[in-house]
Amino acid sequence: DLYRKVFVFRKDPSDAYVVLRARLEQPLHNLTVCLRSYTDLSRPHSLFSYATKAQDNEILLFKPKPEEYRFYVGGKFVTFRVPEGRRDWEHVCASWESASGIAEFWLNGKPWPRKGLQRGYTVGATAAILLGQEQDSFGGGFDFYNSFSGELTDVYLWDTALSPDKMRAAFLSLRLPPALLAWKSLSYEVKGDVVVKPRLRE
């Protein structure tokens, strides 16, 4: 149980990462990924990387610069421009629905204008899911200058597009629906220089 704990990625740039194991029975037609990050990086970095053998950016949350997030599904992406962070924790949730092709992005409990992404697409179920690196091949192919350095916590993946109430609940760390990946019952393996520590503050 990682409740009130964080992964600290100590080095910059880094070759470290964390492998996450999810129980995916079938491909995804809807999804939401949420996480909280704390970093002083200004260079590009990957937050959440989900690769299949067919597509290395099957699901990717990527921050190319401090005032921008990119959300990829099936190798295509939409960009969400954000105020440059005040060097504080940032909570992000990104959701996607295949039927409507709608991508939602929430930052610190507030929604950004919705965008269109990969209508009719299906996300493959046989996946390598990593924190801290961006995969350019299945489970590997890292560019260390896209690595994450800092603290990550509250990582979740659902096979639904969460409702606005649940998006706000994720930001506030309230009770959440059962997830494919849940921070409080995370199956993970650390590769390299990543340390699990208590969160310094709420």
TrEMBL record:
<keyword id="KW-0479">Metal-binding</keyword>
<keyword id="KW-0106">Calcium</keyword>
<keyword id="KW-1015">Disulfide bond</keyword>
<dbReference type="InterPro" id="IPR030476">
    <property type="entry name" value="Pentaxin_CS"/>
</dbReference>
<dbReference type="GO" id="GO:0006953">
    <property type="term" value="P:acute-phase response"/>
</dbReference>
<dbReference type="GO" id="GO:0001849">
    <property type="term" value="F:complement component C1q complex binding"/>
</dbReference>
<keyword id="KW-0732">Signal</keyword>
<feature type="disulfide bond">
    <location>
        <begin position="34"/>
        <end position="93"/>
    </location>
</feature>
<dbReference type="InterPro" id="IPR051005">
    <property type="entry name" value="Pentraxin_domain"/>
</dbReference>
<protein>
    <recommendedName>
        <fullName>Pentraxin family member</fullName>
    </recommendedName>
</protein>
<comment type="similarity">
    <text>Belongs to the pentraxin family.</text>
</comment>
<dbReference type="GO" id="GO:0045087">
    <property type="term" value="P:innate immune response"/>
</dbReference>
<dbReference type="GO" id="GO:0046872">
    <property type="term" value="F:metal ion binding"/>
</dbReference>
<dbReference type="InterPro" id="IPR013320">
    <property type="entry name" value="ConA-like_dom_sf"/>
</dbReference>
<dbReference type="InterPro" id="IPR001759">
    <property type="entry name" value="PTX_dom"/>
</dbReference>
<keyword id="KW-0964">Secreted</keyword>
<keyword id="KW-0011">Acute phase</keyword>
<feature type="domain" description="Pentraxin (PTX)">
    <location>
        <begin position="3"/>
        <end position="202"/>
    </location>
</feature>
<comment type="subunit">
    <text>Homopentamer. Pentaxin (or pentraxin) have a discoid arrangement of 5 non-covalently bound subunits.</text>
</comment>
<dbReference type="Pfam" id="PF00354">
    <property type="entry name" value="Pentaxin"/>
</dbReference>
<dbReference type="GO" id="GO:0005615">
    <property type="term" value="C:extracellular space"/>
</dbReference>
